Structure prediction request, 848 residues.
Amino acid sequence: MKIMSRLRNFDLPVKSIGFNLGFTAIISLTILLATLTACAAPATQTQQSPEGRDLASVDGQTFPDPLDLAAAHLEAIGGRAAVEAVKGYYATGTARIVGSQEDHVIVKEWVRPGEGWRMRWDVDGFGRLEHGFDGRIAWLVRPGQPEDAVRDEKYREVAASRVLLHPEVDLIGHLGAARTIGRREIAGHSTWEVQVTGPAGSVQSRFYDEETGMLRAIERDELWTGQLTSILTVYDDWQPVDGVLYPHRVTRIPPNGPERMRVLESVTTEQVPPDALRPPAEVLAAASEDRYEVEVERDVMVPMRDGVRLATDIYRPLGAGDRLPVILIRTTYNKAQHGPARVFAERGYVVVVQDERGKWASEGEFAFPCKQSSRYDGYDIVEWVASQPWSNGRVGTYGCSRLGENQLLLAAERHPAHVAMIPQSGRGAVGPHSYGGAFPLSMAAGWHPRAGTKDRTDGDAQIPLPEGLHYLPTVDIMQNYGVGPTDWEDLVTNPIEDPWWQTHGYITESDSFATPALMVNSWYDEQTLQLFNLMQQNAVDKRTRQHQYVIISPMTHCRSEMASEHTRVGELYVGDARFPYWETYLRWFDYWLRGVDNGVTGIPRVQYYVTGANEWRSADEWPVPGVRPAQLYLRSGGEAGERMDDGVLSHQPPEANQPTDRYVYNPGNPVPSRGGILSGAYDQSDIEQRADVLVYSTPPLDDLLDVVGPMHATLYVSSSSPDTDFTVKLVDVHPDGQAFNIQEGILRARYREGFDRAVWMGPGEVYEIKVDLHATAHRFLPGHRVRVEVSSSNFPEFDRNLNTGGDNVTEAEWEIAENTIHHSPTHPSHLLLPVVAGVEKAQANQKR
Prediction:
């Protein structure tokens, strides 16, 4: 039996001193988890011939000796003696995608020559990414996955080789046979290209500036997004640090995708203490555990019922047994990049990871809205897996976002071998109605270029955000920015009342379920609580009904596991929101797939995090018991859009007709989105100064107010246009004036009577509308205010209503609307909150 009981010493010859000029940061948040393992990969050391290099010539011209170029580089940056005197360094800086406006990633690195290194990225709203090598253990800390020691020998070899800090000190001895092959222009500089060949045939090119002699760039294969890719790394802005020049700007240029730049702000040469390289305690504990070695069989082509073959990777734990439980992961995002597969496989599961139809190595055509193919393909791969000689016939499923949707659609097909699942953030399986009839523009427009192309050109084109989303007509956005063919046009041109949506296999109330589920989601995401209840309601038997569970974190999309001891969701601090996710996941699968009686089914069926209180709570049903509805009525003197102190939320309904609140909605100047779905909580106070944002607030609360459950706002509205939108935000106003969005909703007025029909508004008519604010669990603290913002746009989170009564996605002209909110005894606009405790005292001073 091949089990790695403890990590043995990794004895790679290391004899270099100085700095590795190739330390880089990986920034793109869309692929940050995959690229954490992207270590620079110098060629493995080996025995060399006595001369170690050749001299090359073309047309009689002899090129410089590689060793002469290496020596010139050392001299240019301060001299061999100065480089060899360096005993270590500590560097800090920031990283970002070139040309983007994204917040910088904070980068830190520690290096001890010949002993080890450690790198760390702190990404605001995303978490901590860290990896290193201490001379024995190569390790990773990745948001969303367990902190772990890396047992893959190839990765450990790469990690160990990064202790080579400056190969120019002994170019041949460190890297292999070298020869100069010619000139090449790099970033506007003429350079000599030195090609270095390692013992296994790996090749890298090192480019030395023809004028200055300094290393200008390195081109080599690196582990990038889970696979070997040729990356050009360019070094600029060389600055002296203790007598040695170091590049303070490093740009990584992959063959496809945006350039990524890291800028150093501080580099110090110092004797880095050994403790700086020590792996976290969790890593050390993991290194001492018994784990299985994993063998991966790539690109097994599994036929579906229509003959289309889907590419499938199979991770097998060596020596774990002949017939094992299986965990299935079906993905749109490239099966080669799926890190959790090894987490499960090392613990004795066969893990099957499959590219969806039409994506990456799979055959067929990808169709985003076609959930029917996801149902059938999911069923067929479970059928295939359960019949394999290495399977015990019990299949669990795992994954987030599209991967979560795939599980839920599979569950609706009720394959008998599908005995457990962990669907995360899979709300998209039920269709488009969760947005009040508006289209989730920024979410969809960001996703389709990255992952939704039909010609396998994912990531080749990008839409500049948010400015690119102003383009009209909306239907032509993808074409305008050169995105390959997608389902975008069909998605945006078919209104939600169109029968077209009913032909694609989305989950409906007619579906039934037979698979126990542990659902995971977050407050700042497309919530799955309605699905949680539907799966209980439509369970085929008592056993299935009693084994539906849900965990709701305070985080954003697919980031629940990334919560830390000091969690921020956007800009809002929510405390220690950690939860034993991976322990729970492993216990869940151990129980259902292996039959281990570990008590996991005794956990509360609903576990949720209360922001503000910053604590986990639990219940056995949703909505939770003990909650009662509390109405807060909108009242004002008619200037809720002009004065921050005019609009009031009151426990008392209006006693007499009050002036209405009017505002102008101009689609050419929409209210900008800040935070919300997928983004988190951000200060809205400056946005509230706009005249087209009505603000209604309670006085400062005398007592705490816990709001837990579904919410909605009932508004009485009128408009000068036949159709317009109404948006509502629930906001927590802190004593210092910061106003953080807690939850939000939107309703396209034409759908006020239901999503199966469009009904227009008449000028001057008053209509009752109900805006779904989804659900939350939030504590408003004493001294805080409860606030509601009302407007008619939240762009680009949602597409703009052009106010014409026509087709908002094919038209390019708009009309300006005058919209009105009524609040009177006959038109009592109000907010309905599910209050747990403290509402009586909190509302005592709210009478106007």
Observations:
- Residues 1-58, 838-848 have pLDDT under 50 and may be disordered.
- The first helix runs from residue 32 to 35.
- The radius of gyration is 29 Å.
